[in-house]
Specification:
6% of the residues lie in helices and 53% in strands. It is mainly beta.
Length: 136
């Protein structure tokens, strides 16, 4: 199995750059777009399993959406698996995004979704496959 470290691209144009220590600790940067503008770059931290099981490796990481330029008052946590599917490295995740709210609005504070990260931007690999699976 290859490694989790390196550059990953999300379905909507994000870029995730990860370093992974021998004990599974993850550090890196999340770029909300494919540029390197400081206001679109956020710190990533997390953990991964240190040994693959059945061709998969579990992984979890978090981004707090603030930096010295912007504060979105929210945090996203991704949990998923690093896998090789048909020879392609894939990071298949589910996420929870929680934004700060007043106590009476807590019911609307958290959104749930899924992201698949690949080693190349969607437009350069399976753009057609992605569009067929998502309907657009």
């Amino acid at each position: 199995m290859k490694g989790l470290a390196g550059t990953w691209y999300g379905q909507r144009g994000s870029r995730l750059v990860l370093s992974v220590a021998h004990d599974g600790r993850i550090e890196g940067k999340y770029h909300t777009s494919n540029d390197n503008e400081p206001h679109t770059t956020f710190d990533v931290s997390g953990m991964s399993d240190t040994r693959a099981f059945g061709g998969s490796r579990s992984v979890g990481f978090v981004v707090c959406w603030n930096n010295e330029y912007v504060n979105q008052h929210s945090v996203t946590a991704w949990s998923g698996q690093y896998q090789i599917i048909n020879g392609e490295e894939v990071l298949a995740t589910s996420w929870l995004l929680t934004r700060e709210t007043a106590p009476e609005d807590d019911w609307a504070a958290t959104m749930v979704g899924q992201d698949t990260f690949r080693r190349a931007p969607v437009g350069e690999t399976q753009a057609g496959e992605f569009e067929n699976r998502t309907g657009g």
